[in-house]
Amino acid sequence: MKSSILRAGVVALACALSLSACGGGKGDLNLTGSVYNVTKEGLELTNNGGDNTKVVSPFTSFVFNNRVSTDDSFNIEVANVPSNVASKADCVVTNGKGRANYFSIAQIRVDCKIRQRALTVNVSGLTKDGLVIVNGNDSKTVAAGTTRVDMQKVNEDGPYGVTVLTQPHTVDPVSGQSVQTQTCTVGGGSNGIGGGTMGATEDTTVTVDCQ
Questions:
Q1: Residue 83 · residue 40 · CB < 8 Å
Q2: Mean pLDDT, consecutive 10-residue segments, the chain of 211 residues?
């Protein structure tokens, strides 16, 4: 009788350590990973064609709803993408297929490529050289007579803000000092002063007016 009770206790302990081995519910490992370059809701992942799991704010990691057991096969794929990502092919899963253990699940990552839109600045009245405009790390030197400047593309749903870094100027030959020759102001954009959030189409509304 004692041996039967002891044997039952050992089996119960084994089941507690590995529920799936006994046909039970959840396993012992959270199937998780890192997420890169996702800025909004919409990314949804599957494991082995099921257990659909949405990536939620702050969009830097995911955890599947159901845990897996050690040595279970997993195959993570992209089911849906955010609206600012063109297709499922633009979200790449790395190390998303294998057998579960503490090492393999720590290597999983998903990298998405956000759709980009053109940002065009319309320039008027520029008759002198030396104007420099910027948007973030994108700097453009604008020559006299220029009417259009193509800035680097901006991520859809991403922020932008065009500003004047350096006004048109010349160097005084006597003093060697820089002398401002015109004053340029930035307008347009979704906030009216050259910035805002990039929409689903290119932005051609930013203006630079020089006097």
A1: yes
A2: 37 36 60 97 97 97 95 97 97 97 94 98 98 98 98 97 97 89 96 96 96 97
Report the run of H or E that residue 124 belongs to, with start and end: strand 116-124
- Structure-block tokens of residue 140: 């453009």
State the Cα–Cα distance between residues 81 and 87, nearest whole angstrom: 7
CA 10, 15, 70 angle in degrees (round to 5)?
125
Cis before residue 168, ω within 30 degrees of 0? no
> Nearest-CA neighbor of 160 among 145, 141, 180, 138?
138
pTM above threshold 0.70: yes
The Cβ of residue 8 has, within 10 Å, a number of other Cβ atoms equal to: 10
